[in-house]
Amino acid sequence: MKEEEISYYEKKVSENPINLDDWKAGVHNKTLKIAIIGIGRIGLPTSLMIAKAGYITFGIDIKQDYVEKINQGGGDPPIKFILDEPNLPEILKEVISNGKFSASTDFVKYISLANIIIICVPTPITSQKVPDYSKINEVIKNIGSLKELIKDKIVIIESTVSPLYVKNIGIPLLEKISGLEINKDFWIASCPERADPGNIIKNLKSIPRIVGACNENASKIVASFYKTVFDVNIIQVSNPRTANSVKLIENIFRVVNIAFSNEIAQLSRLLDIDYMEVLKGAKSKYNFLPHYPGPGVGGPCLPANPYFLITDGYLVSFTPNLVRLATEINQRQPAHITELIFEGLNKIKLPISETPIAVLGISYKPDVKDTQMSSVFPILNDLRQYGASITLYDPYFANEEEQGLKIELNYKFIKNNYPIILVHTGHNEFRSQEFMDFLKECKNLKMIIDCQNIYEKEDLPKGIYYIGVGRPLKYLE
Ligand SMILES: NC(=O)c1ccc[n+]([C@@H]2O[C@H](COP(=O)([O-])OP(=O)(O)OC[C@H]3O[C@@H](n4cnc5c(N)ncnc54)[C@H](O)[C@@H]3O)[C@@H](O)[C@H]2O)c1
Predict the structure, then answer these.
(1) How far, in Å, from the CA of 158 to the mean position of ligand 1?
(2) Is 301 a catalytic residue?
(3) pLDDT confidence of residue 6
(4) Is the pTM of this model over 0.90?
(5) Pairwise CA distance, residues 150 & 154, whole Å
(6) Is 191 considered catalytic here?
(7) Which atom number of ligand 1 is nearest to the Cα of residue 194?
(8) With a 6 A CB cut-off, is 79 part of the ligand 1 pocket?
(9) Fewer beta carbons below 10 Å: N end or C end of the chain?
(10) Mutate which of 193, 249, 363 to test ligand 1's pocket (most atoms within 8 Å of Cβ)?
């Protein structure tokens, strides 16, 4: 730890050290009460696991109807993401019926009752590509406004934030509004969430937690609390900014490697090389870690996380150029998909305005009901600007509207009229034998564009063109 860091994090501790034994007993006996603010995709499963471990847990959110649905076990029809998280519905019912978990919009009551407050609200990026901390700052102000009522509590930030957020914004804001002092009256830790939608319960039970707190004792308490909940390895790091760096770096590592693949995939096509074949060869070497090309990165994390690091870089006059460039390469990928469509249209000699296109899969990744920052939207915008007529289907949104778009009930509409199928998301349904058999019945089908390279050419119907990302256009004979 650097000199100024030691003074910041440790000096005040000696004035009024946290009572380690009391907290340890609270963890050991599960008598601590826990409040989670923001019980969405991440906060809800986290709350349920805490309740399942035996702690009285309060889930706090701002949406009244949503909170009611959760208290009814998910509601009918169930909340959007509940069904694509295996085990979530069962755990929700269990912890509601045994009284360990309840959801509420009553912020003041439950924050006052809690010993540990976990913040799990969204931290997206703005249109200016900087972190949007409006929601987390609002939550911190609300906590701070409770003043003496938040004395002796530990606040844990699980939301994704930049390395410097806790030190530069979170702590000063909470101290200012509450009139209380960090490491004397309350404690702060970061434990950034590392789970993946679609696997959240499984990830929570297997991925180690990274804990970085405002002092060593707080770190020990937070670490032992998480250990009792998830029974995973707990890695304690020096401070919140190191913990938040871990979260960002692991995602940015993927962003950079995906960009590398997207770039080399484009070059490979031009050289008449199938990049998937190249990857198959390269990954046979022990130190090659394959990342796959695709239509662009989506979801709440990968497209946004680089900007958290880039923004902190500004503060110290440093631009992480590789990260910036990788992000730009991935952002250009939807436009590359449009180029592939035009390449195919030229080949089959059909004008885009007279060629209905079936787009399959709108989620940002396979087998989740989630379209946050999905690359399908820029692709659709592009195609519509060229006058394309598009019909959409996604099994996770069958017969629903999503972001103002109508989604068909099933893929059967393709059968007679659609010369082009664009498979945007590699959902399992589009890999099934039933779907492969169906393709053979599509009499007018002339071309498949496979944005996630889920098909082997041999498995597709003969007499059509196939284009993958990084795979040269091929007529299937
Ligand atoms: N979804 C993921 O894959 C994922 C993975 C890792 C980390 N994260 C991070 O976790 C955090 C939460 O993301 P999420 O995907 O769960 O978001 P989400 O949108 O699914 O859920 C957030 C919840 O917070 C509630 N909320 C918003 N403002 C509030 C306020 N002032 N008080 C109380 N509740 C409020 C919303 O109503 C919503 O229910 C973000 O920082 C995100 O970057 C997300």
Answers:
(1) 9
(2) yes
(3) 41
(4) yes
(5) 9
(6) no
(7) 6
(8) no
(9) C
(10) 193
